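Sequence only, no structure available. Ideas?
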Amino acid sequence: MFNTKLVAGIFLVLAVLFAQVGNVAAAPQTQGTTTTITGTIQSITFDPDTQTVLVTVLLEDQVTTQTVSLSTQEAADNGLFDLDTQTLMMQPEDSVELVVDPNDIVPTEEPTALDVHPISALLADFFFNGDPEMASLIDSYHTGDNDAEQVFGFGVIAQALWMSKSLNEDGTADAELAGLILAAKKSGDYSAFELPDGSSPTNWGQFKKALLHKDKKNLGLIVSGHAENGLEDSLTQQDHGKGKNKDKGNNKHNNNNHP
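Reply:
I predicted one. C-alpha cells follow.
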C-alpha cells in the first residue's frame, strides 16, 4: 500500500514537471541580445573605408523603415555581404530577415521637411545640431544630386566633415568645404589646399592623415554614439596646426572661410 502511494506520488510530480517543460517549449523564444528585422531592403551600401554595411529596410507594415549599421562580418552572417570578394550579395527590393544587435540600429530621427537618408540626418545632427539644410546638402553628396558624377559613401563624407573642422580656424564643421574636399578626392587634385608644412597634399591618404592627426574618427563612432564632437574637441586642433584651403570661392586666402 505504501509503495503504491509512493509510485503514484512520483508519477504526479513527473507529470507536473513535464507540463511545465511543455509550457516553456511552447512559449515564444526570446531574442536575448539580438533583434529580428523583417521586410524589404530599401537601400544598401558598403563603405570600404569604415568596413560597414548600411541597410535600410521597409518593414512588413509597409510604412516604417529601419536602418542598421553592420560590420562586414555581421552583414556576412545575415547573407548580405561576401567577405572574400568584398561585395554586396543583396540589393534593393530583396526580402530580408536580419538578426542584429540592437546597438546596430540607427536611432530614428525626428521627421523634417526634407526627405533625406537617415545617415545624412544623423551627420547633420552630429556636426550641425540637426540643421535640415545641412542634412540636405550632406545627402546630395551621397545621392549625387549636385553632380551625378560625384557620389560618395557616408564614411568618406563623415571624414570630409571632420577634415573641414581642421581646416577652419574656429574648429567648426563646414558642409560646403567638405564638398570641396570630396571633389578633390574625386579628381585627385588637391592643389587648392595647403598642409601645415606649407605644401599641398598629393593624395587622399596624405591629406586625411595631415588633417585628422591619426585620430580614430569615422562614421561607425558617430552611429554608435561613441564619437565626441564640439568645441572642446575641435579647439585642440590648433595645438596640432591646421591645413589650409587655398581656394574656397573665387579668392585665395588662408582659411578665413567665415566672416
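The longest strand covers residues 35-47.
Hope that gets you unstuck.
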